[in-house]
Design goal:
Rossmann fold, 9 strands, AB_hydrolase_fold, carboxylic ester hydrolase activity, Cephalosporin-C deacetylase, AXE1_dom
C-alpha cells in the first residue's frame, strides 16, 4: 500500500478548521439524559466454566444502553483477583461484535479487568432498531438514519458506549476511578467519543488507528473500508443531500469529541492506512483538548497499525501514568 496522504512533517501540524455544530453539547447531553432516564439494571452471569478457562473469570453482562435497550458485554478479570481493579472498556471495530471471551484474554492476563462492549446491529447479541423511516441507503451502517442527527445509527451506538462506562460502577470488583477506554478503528472513534462526553470519569483513552474522524476529508481520500459507503450514497444524491449528510455526520465526528476530551490519550496512526487515512487521525489528535497526548506512528503500516506491537506499547504507556493493577 503506497503512501497516499500528506507527508510526516505536514501531518504533524495538520489541524483543519472544524467547528462543531452550535448545539453539539446540548444534543449529546440531552441524548445521554434521555437514555439514563430509561433506567434498567446491570446484570451479569458467571460463564467461566462454559469456556474451560482456569486463570480468568468471565461474566456475560447486559447493561441498559440507548433507549434503555439491553447491550451485551463480556467482563473478564484475573481469577481470584482481590480489591478493585482498573478496567479497560473495549469497543469493537466496524462490522464486528464482542465475539467470544476467548478472543479477549490479553488485558486480564496483564492483571486488568476488561469490559468488552458489543456493537448493536454489528455483533450477534445486541440488535439495532433504526429510527425515523428506517431507510438503509447502502449496505453497512454509515448511512443508516443519515437524514438527521437524531436518527443516525452512531447516535445509538455512541450512547451504548457511554452507558457502558456508567455500568462499571454497578459491576463488582471494578474501580470506577480508573477506567480506560480503548479500541481500534471504529472502536478507537468510539473511545474518543466517550472521552469527549464523559470528561473526568475517564482516566485514560487509547484510540488505535481511529475511524469516525474528519469525515469531510475521509470520504475524499479513503480507498477502502466504510467511508466509501458515504461516497456511494452521495454519488446518487449529490444534487440535494451533500450538506445535510455532512451536517448529520458533524454530530458524530471524532474531531469534535476530541475538542472536548481532557484525559491522557495515546493515539496511534498508520501512515499507509487506506481505511482511516493518517490526516483524519491527526485532525483529531491535533484538536485534542488534553495536554497529555501521545501519538505512536507506524510509518509503513496499513490499517493493521502496530499489530502485535500495540498491546505492549499501551501497557508501557499506562504504567507511566500509574494506571496499573495493584499487586
Amino acid at each position: 500500500m503506497p503512501l497516499t496522504d500528506f507527508g510526516a512533517d505536514e501531518l504533524a501540524h495538520y489541524r483543519p478548521e472544524s467547528p462543531a455544530p452550535h448545539d453539539f453539547d446540548a444534543f449529546w447531553q440531552g441524548t445521554l439524559d434521555e437514555a439514563r432516564a430509561q433506567g434498567g439494571a446491570v446484570k451479569g452471569e458467571r460463564v467461566t466454566d462454559r469456556y474451560r478457562l482456569y486463570t480468568v473469570e468471565v461474566d456475560d453482562v447486559r447493561f441498559p444502553g440507548w433507549n434503555g435497550e439491553p447491550v451485551a458485554a463480556w467482563l473478564l478479570r484475573p481469577q481470584g483477583a482481590e480489591g478493585l481493579l482498573p478496567v479497560v472498556v473495549t469497543y469493537i471495530g466496524y462490522s464486528g461484535g464482542r465475539g467470544l471471551p476467548t478472543e479477549h484474554l490479553f488485558w486480564s492476563a496483564a492483571g486488568y479487568a476488561q469490559l468488552v462492549v458489543d456493537s448493536r446491529g454489528q455483533g450477534h447479541d445486541t440488535p439495532d432498531r433504526p429510527q425515523g423511516d428506517g431507510t438503509q441507503w447502502v449496505e453497512g451502517f454509515m448511512t443508516r438514519g443519515i437524514d438527521s442527527p437524531e436518527n443516525h445509527y452512531y447516535r445509538r451506538l455512541i450512547t451504548d458506549c457511554a452507558r457502558a462506562v456508567d455500568a462499571v460502577a454497578e459491576l463488582p470488583g471494578l474501580d470506577a476511578d480508573r477506567i480506560v477506554v480503548t479500541g481500534g478503528s471504529q472502536g478507537g472513534g468510539l473511545a474518543l467519543a466517550v472521552a469527549g462526553l464523559l470528561g473526568e470519569r475517564v482516566a485514560a483513552v487509547m484510540p488505535d488507528v481511529p475511524f469516525l474522524c474528519h469525515f469531510r476529508r475521509a470520504v475524499q481520500i479513503a480507498g477502502e473500508g466504510p467511508y466509501p459507503e458515504i461516497v456511494n450514497y452521495l454519488r446518487w444524491h449529490s444534487r440535494d443531500k451533500v450538506e445535510q449528510t455532512f451536517a448529520t455526520l458533524d454530530y458524530v465526528d471524532g474531531v469534535h469529541f476530541a475538542q472536548r476530551a481532557t484525559a491522557p490519550v495515546l493515539f496511534s496512526v498508520a501512515l499507509m492506512d487506506p481505511v482511516c487515512p493518517a490526516s483524519t487521525v491527526y485532525a483529531a489528535f491535533n484538536h485534542y483538548a488534553g495536554e497529555d497526548r501521545t501519538m505512536t506512528v507506524w510509518p509503513f503500516a496499513d490499517h493493521g497499525g502496530g499489530c502485535g506491537s500495540t498491546p505492549p506499547t499501551q501497557l508501557e504507556w499506562l504504567a507511566e501514568r500509574g494506571l496499573t493493577p495493584r499487586p
